[in-house]
Amino acid sequence: MFHQPELETKFARSDTPLSLSDDTRIQGYASRFGEVDQGGDLVMPGAYQSSLQKLSEGGRKVKMLWQHDPAQPIGVWDEVREDETGLWVSGRLLRETQRGAEAIALIQAGALDGLSIGYRTRRSTKTKEGQRQLLQVDLWEVSLVTFPMLPSARVTDAQVKSRDDNSDQLAHALRQASRALAEM
C-alpha cells in the first residue's frame, strides 16, 4: 500500500511590515535559512531546489492560498526562488476573488502580514539539540496567514493602488448579489 506523506505547513513572519506595490503586487521571504521556527524546524539552503525545478519543468507554479485553504486561491506567485537568505516569493493578489480583495484590505490596514509554506518533507535530519533540519521538501503552496510560524518570514513589500473609478464598489455589490442568490 502506498503511503503519501502528510502535508506540513510553516507560518512565517518578518520584521518588515507587509505592503503592496504595482497595484496588487506582494513580495517577501516565505522561509529563511538557518532560523529555527516555533516548531523546532530549521530549513537548510537547497531544500527547495529540487521541488522548484520539477514544478518549472512541468510548467506548474507554487500556489498562492488564503490561510492554507486549497479551496481559496487568492493570487499567483510569479516568481519563487531560493537565494542566500531563503525562499523569496513575488506575486499578485487577485482583486477579483473575494479573499484576494479581503487580503488587500487587511494588508492596507496593517492587519495581515504573515507568510507560510505548505510542503511535504522528503529528507530531514535531527540535530543533537533536537531540531529537525529540513534538507529537501516538496513545496506545494505559499499562503498569506495571520500567525506565521517563523517570526522573520513575512511579506516585505506590497502595495495596492487605489482605483479612481467605482469598480471596487461594483465588485462588492456583485459579490453581495451573488451571495444573496446562492442563499435563495
TrEMBL record:
Does the record bear Hydrolase in its keywords?
Answer: yes
All copies of domain Prohead serine protease, residue ranges: 21-156
**Which keywords does this Swiss-Prot/TrEMBL entry list?**
Hydrolase, Protease, Viral release from host cell
User: What name appears for this protein in its UniProt entry?
Assistant: Prohead serine protease domain-containing protein
What NCBIfam families has UniProt attached to this entry? proheadase_HK97
Entry annotated with the keyword Repeat: no
Q: Matching InterPro entries, A to Z?
A: Peptidase_S78_dom, Prohead_protease
Origin organism is Epibacterium ulvae
Pfam families named among the record's database cross-references = Peptidase_S78 (PF04586)
Q: Which domain of life is it from?
A: Bacteria
GO BP field: proteolysis
Q: Which GO terms describe its molecular function?
A: peptidase activity
